[in-house]
Amino acid sequence: MSILIDKNTRLIVQGITGRDGSFHASKMKAYGTNVVGGTSPGKAGELTDGIPVFNTVKDAVNETGADTSVIFVPAPFAKDAMMEAADAGIKLIIAITEGVPTLDVIEAYHFIRQRGANLIGPNCPGLISPGKGLVGIMPSMIFKQGSTGVISRSGTLTYEVVYNLTEHSMGQSTAIGVGGDPVVGLYFIELLEMFENDPETDSIALIGEIGGDAEERAAAYIKKHITKPVAVFIAGQQAPPGKQMGHAGAIISSGSGTAAEKIAAFEAAGVPVAKEPSQIPDLLKKRR
Amino acid sequence: MKIHEYQAKEMFASYGLPVDRSIVCRSIEDAVKAYGQLDSQRVIVKAQVHTGGRGKAGGVKLAKDEIELRKHAATILGMNIKGFTVDRILVGQAVNIEKEYYVSFVIDRASKSTILMLSREGGMDIEEVARTTPEKIHKFEIDPSLGLPEYLAREAAFKLFDDIKEVNQATAIFQKLYKLFVGTDASLAEINPLVLTKEGNLMAIDAKMTFDDNALYRHPKIAALNEPTEEEKKEQNAKSKGFSYVNLGGEIGCMVNGAGLAMATMDLIKLYGGNPANFLDIGGSSNPTKVIEAMKLLLSDQNVKVVLINIFGGITRCDDVAKGLLEAFKQIKTGVPVVIRLTGTNEKEGRALLQGTGLYVAETMGEATRKAVSLV
Question: For a FRET experiment, which of A77, A115, B24, B238 has its CA 20 to 30 Å from that of B197?
Fold first, then answer.
């Protein structure tokens, strides 16, 4: 098993005829993901790398039975794309698009929840269940099938940690980049719960960064509810207050959201914190 | 993006929110003229700067007559508040204050909602109130499809006021402020304090707004109000080239692909006893043009003694990255030593291409960082 995506996932790509959409649609298909269709208004009937294109998500769902959608449309249209997917009955929506206005995300998120669906992202690299499926833009070749779950707020830093895990023969059940914006969909607590309930996952790596207090809340949740070993890395100890560090969500404001506070919260919860990403495999092995 | 109090008050007024009468001034003469127009014996003189803590820094003064006004205007104009030089002051009618309140709309990450935040402890540092007496803060999550209908605004207003006349005024203020917040894609709209005057009127005597940078494309008038500092100009210039850059003042210049990895690289430099000169995320791909631009940016910082390039080759393969780096270093001649860590897809091929080029090549982040620190 794995979480959220597997061999049975039926994926559509919204914005499949765009540069990024078509490039990654091919990559996902080549990896073995069941890409059943794509959308691009006005281009129904075309094929992208053999994948049928539809005008609307509703058409795509009716024709293909899709249950998952990945969004590559430009930021000004991302809210509409997320809501269209939810309204058409898609159950898992992954928004890769960067630079989506926060109030657009809030509106789309609440609508998606009301439709009983889940959102990952926006501004995220997506997720992968190695050997089963890839949804998003992660470099599949560094991943290996296995039993460590990975949850991260960052892209390349996730790859760094995954690379270290793979080097130590610790494959991954599912790896998810939740996204770097202040407001995004599924986050640490929901994903920790899914990994705890996944029989194929035996340990969890969590990669956090400065900004907000999601790490503090995750630490409290792990202490109370998670029985599997967890190891953590927090990026941004050297970040100056008030400055945005690449991700819109990575900003320390008024003394909250610092790396020091987050590290202290995990240590208080008995969760080991790696000083550098390469220590994660050992921290997990020791406790497994 | 931040704007000044006087600009926020202009937005408030255009949405029908009650604000004190005030005039923005750039000189003592302006201030004296404004004093004549305001038709009030007592006026408040306030520094207009993009930072909090103006009052404590001496940037807010009450003037009882024209002589005092001249004196305060002279002191505050040109004053330095947390690195910002005051070039504008706001001269406003002094208000007879009965009581002060706190009102704001703000994005809450945890509930993924806009929240209305209220307190009877107005005029104070709200974060301090939240820390010491959280029970004195009231929060209302707003369902974006519902917005803030009158009944909800009224329910919130009853948390601050008992008299129905005041409740009705507050209800209208909350609704208008929410309309402004949504209409301008704000990330914060704050009134601190909202005052009840001795005459029984509610009025915003301070106004603070910040805006979502991601949404500025649909608000060109607000985007035009941007006043970046020198440092922010450098950051914005980097952004226009597809980078995120923040200067940190150390000696080791960093170039990294990805924000999280860039932060982790800074942390590792510190862990091994060095000081990062900057945060620089060059984004996912690493084509030669980008690397050249990034190197120029790093070397424009006189403090930089060593450059550490940390690239994780994911979608972009390491051999392509190495070719890009070689191309870039053909064009850049520098005496500053360069350490490169290259890992990921096709890493062996990538590192082989860089051997014998005078660049220090490392396999792991730890190895590269130690090398960079030792070269300072």
Answer: B24
